[in-house]
Amino acid sequence: MIWADRLREEIKERFKDEIAQGKELVIRDEKTLSGRVHVGSLRGIVIHGVIAEILQEEGIKCKFEFELNEFDPMDGLPATLDKKKYKEHMGKPLFTIPSPDEEEIKALGMDTEPGENFPSIFAEEIKGVVEKINLPIEFYNLLPIYKDGRFNECIKDALENASAIRKIYKEVSGGEKPDDWYPLQVVCEKCGRTGTTKVTGWDGTNVTYRCEEDMVTWAKGCSHEGSMSPFDGNGKLPWKVEWAAKWKVLEVHIEGCGKDHSAAGGSRSIAKRISEEIFDYPNPFDIPYEFLNLGGKKMSASKGIGASAKEVSDLLPGIILKLLMMRLVPNRPIDFDPTGKTIPNLFDEYDRLSDHFFKRHREPDEDFARSFKLCQMDISKDPEDIWQMRFSVLSFVLQMPHLNLLEEAEKLKGSKLTEEEKNALEERASYVKAWIDTLAPEEYKFVILESTPNDLEFDEEQKIVLEKLSTALEKAEWEGEEIHKTIHEVKTEADIAPKKLFQPLYEIFLGRKSGPQIGWFLSTIEKEKALEMISSA
Ligand SMILES: [Zn+2]
């Protein structure tokens, strides 16, 4: 059983009463929109999304709500933006900050229009990425929930229980909060910042506060002192308290989080206790997950590939992107090196999984078949069995200007391609082509040599078998399967290790020790030229 199904069983057990009552289970995740969303965040999105899909698959009512957080204060700036220009905005809620202009958007590596405010361009970008994976996600914004007063009760509870919350912080993480600390930050009536305000008192109706000049290093307050209601969006809970409040307000049942929050003494443990002890709401079903490590970072940066979800999603079709994010159990890190073998390996893995799903494999494995099903864009129906060209072959064909992709595909398949197969081929080809042009390592680059290299060194055995092969091929019909058969016959007759025959062939034609499937490969070269090159070796 794969991880997602194991989790489903645990979820069904924990929420059996709710499910029996036909209650809708709420799955939640979030992202603060202070910059482009990092590719690592996609892992959480896919994990939660897949859980939603497989619960729905069994007819269990659920929804996956994804929060676009535009109310957090700006506490850091994407590296390409001008620190001086944004200095005045530091500490303000993100939604009050104007959108980056066209030039800044370009510097961020994005190609969108300026939006209605700073976070909106990042919201649109991540929505686009998620659309590509087609998960059942409902997006919502945080601010309206505050404005509608839905957090009011939790804000009141937090203020009333300030000392209990301080105690939880201390017991869980050892972090001391001063005795006069209140778990709330209001929006300063004078400068509009939330990141710099400190609540100094609470009388049951209003809070008093001071906008501190030096409370944080990343923003300067205006020193204003005032008093106001903390409700209806005037104030914001600090995030560990807010996290717990969101669970209660949105009635969250299932919410995982990244390793950074899951560690002992980390924010999840704090939010859990606040939820249970202050808000009287159970800790949602947790799914701790590991990071996604972007390898070849320097190299990819020099090739213009950044670490954003959008940039990585541009490298892969939706299905393969989803496979990347869900192929491992959540507690194992994902290593993704766009400049290495990860991309070809992912396509190959997808094809291998399909062999299990469609029972082309001699011993079909249920877990592999299930993984194949779950990375589809619509898991409610079985995928169609279509012919696909392997990544390595496709990358080879695309590098051979004399070859026609569709013709080679039909040769390899042995019959005409269906419309669906043609579409799949074209989609795959567009990604593979972009990969060859930008990221492909040298070992995936092929050029057919004009003539046989003259520095080849073969032993006697190899020389004899090449000669035999040349004679045998002369009689063969120049077609992949036939060439393949002939080569194998010569090899068997000469009783030579396959490598000792195949390697010289690749060296003769490609100047390297390996290459695509040999029979088909030779068929893409003119017979006369091929025979001449083998003979002169
Ligand atoms: Zn202020």
Characterise this structure.
This protein is mainly α and 537 residues long. Among the domains are: 87 residues, no CATH class; 56 residues, no CATH class; 77 residues, Arc Repressor Mutant, subunit A (Orthogonal Bundle), CATH 1.10.10.350. It is built from 25 helices and twelve strands. Strands 1-2-3 form a three-stranded parallel β-sheet. A three-stranded antiparallel β-sheet has the order 5-6-7, with no helix packed on it. β5 and β6 form a beta hairpin. α10 crosses α12 and α21 runs antiparallel to α25. The two termini are 53 Å apart. 34% of the residues are buried. Zinc ion binds next to loops. Zinc ion (ZN) binds next to loops.
Give a short overview.
With 537 residues, the chain is mainly alpha-helical. Among the domains are: 87 residues, no CATH class; 56 residues, no CATH class; 77 residues, Arc Repressor Mutant, subunit A, CATH 1.10.10.350. Helix content is 47%, strand content 9%.
